Amino acid sequence: VQLQASGGGSVQSGGSLRLSCAASGRTFSSYVMGWFRQSPGKEREFVGGIWWSEYYADSVKGRFTISRDNAKNTVYLQMNSLKPEDTAVYYCAASSRATINANAVDYWGKGTLVTVSS
Questions:
Q1: What is the secondary structure of 51-93 as a DSSP string?
Q2: Percent of the chain as helix, strand, coil, to the nearest 5
Q3: Is 90 exceeded by the pLDDT of residue 25?
């Protein structure tokens, strides 16, 4: 599986962005998909995951929404009410296991940079 993320950019605090991650392969629907992010000097952290339901890190709950379109082999991350602390490189990932976290990823995509200015 190859993953290609897009949609990053610069936005002011309170703004919105939507990230997309297109996946290759015909078994996309069988993977748990997730988004992670990494800020300078910090470890990569989990943002959200989706298979048949979604789950989120507490830091983004209520502001971010993850969704997927299995017909298009694409997963999305809608980010609203962005804060400067959301600034990071965002990565999409796929897991063949029943969950996804930093230790349960089979495929990583290249990141896309999100910058939120105050």
A1: SSSEEE-TTTTTTEEEEEETTTTEEEEEE-S--GGG-EEEEEE
A2: 5, 50, 45
A3: no
**What stretch of H or E contains 27?**
none
Instruction: Report the distance separating Cα 81 and Cα 38, nearest Å.
Output: 19
- Whether residue 86 is predicted with pLDDT greater than 80 in this model: the reply is yes
CA distance linking residue 85 with residue 3, whole number of Å: 25
User: Could you tell me which residues come within 8 angstroms of residue 77 by beta carbon, excluding any fewer than 6 positions away?
Assistant: 18, 19, 21, 35, 47, 48, 64, 65, 66, 90, 92
Which residues lie across from 91 on neighbouring strands?
36
